[in-house]
Design goal:
The chain is α+β, with helices and mostly antiparallel strands. The protein has one helix spanning 7-39; strands spanning 45-50, 55-56, 59-62, 67-72, 81-82, 97-102, 106-111, 119-124, 139-142. The longest helix is centred in the first third of the chain and has 33 residues, at 7-39. The radius of gyration is 27 Å and the shape is rod-shaped.
């Protein structure tokens, strides 16, 4: 038994094999790539409000690369000062905001320098499996 194909038949056969191969690759590879892309955490923003002489929430837990924004909703000025001096805001009037992006892991206690009884803490924890890559401390203020 011998299979003999014309040039046209061979061309159609090759085209079908290529299409089936591409579809199979799409079926198996694209979902794996999509899952891998979803596994990478994207930086995000957390808002801490200042109201009635308190930070709300008083404690936040984030991953490196997250920006924390403090927004003064009180009717008097407040500041946000980290106890280790890694960040410090100017006096925030009503409606003013101050942002800081945390680059590395660590606990960052802060307070209002005008009202020292006002305190809070940002806990920066490395993402699961990323402990080796995270460094202690650091970050930058966001204009």
């Amino acid at each position: 038994m011998s299979f003999r194909f014309t040039v046209c038949q061979r061309s159609r056969l090759v085209r079908r094999v290529v299409i089936v191969t591409v579809m199979a690759m799409k079926w198996f590879l694209v979902p794996a790539c999509a899952e891998e892309a979803r596994a990478v955490p994207t930086p995000k923003e957390i808002v801490v409000t200042i109201d009635n002489f308190s930070f709300n929430p008083p404690e936040v837990t984030i991953t490196p690369g997250t920006t924390v924004t403090w927004e003064n909703r009180d009717d008097i000025p407040h500041t946000v000062v980290e106890t280790g001096k890694s960040f410090r805001s100017h006096a925030l009037d009503t409606g003013d905001r101050f942002s800081f992006t945390f680059a590395g892991a660590g606990d960052f206690a802060y307070f209002c320098s005008l009202h020292p009884h006002m305190t809070g803490i940002v806990k920066v924890q490395p993402p699961p499996g990323g402990a080796a890559a995270a460094s202690m401390g650091g970050g930058h203020a966001v204009p």
